[in-house]
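Question:
Write out your own:
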Amino acid sequence: RVMSIGLMPGSRLPAHSTSMGRVLLAAMPDAEARRVIEASDLSPRTRFSLTDPEEIMAQVQAARTRGYAMVDQEVEISLRSLAVPVLNSKGAVVAALNTGMAATQPDPAELVESYLPALLKVQAGIARILG
């Protein structure tokens, strides 16, 4: 079991501290993403949680540039996640796709190397279906 919290359809987590949330924030103009972040409860969920709006915005902007977001133990200790946007036929972000796993490797970058290619393959398949 990777997560101690139970997530069901309709469950909500803060966008600023999840990989899917950051991908969705990255799809917004900076001013809109900043408004969402500043209106959010930035209380830390773990000791790794980012709570400074500027640091969170930097991660959102990095996700926009890279085309993916990675979160390392910000939602729950021992949980890492990686997300990519889902694009419609016009190239607009309409959803996000993610995977999560236990933080067992010492280097979080290994998550990107191991799982990003598979996520990008699924992303491309979904784009074909939506296209």
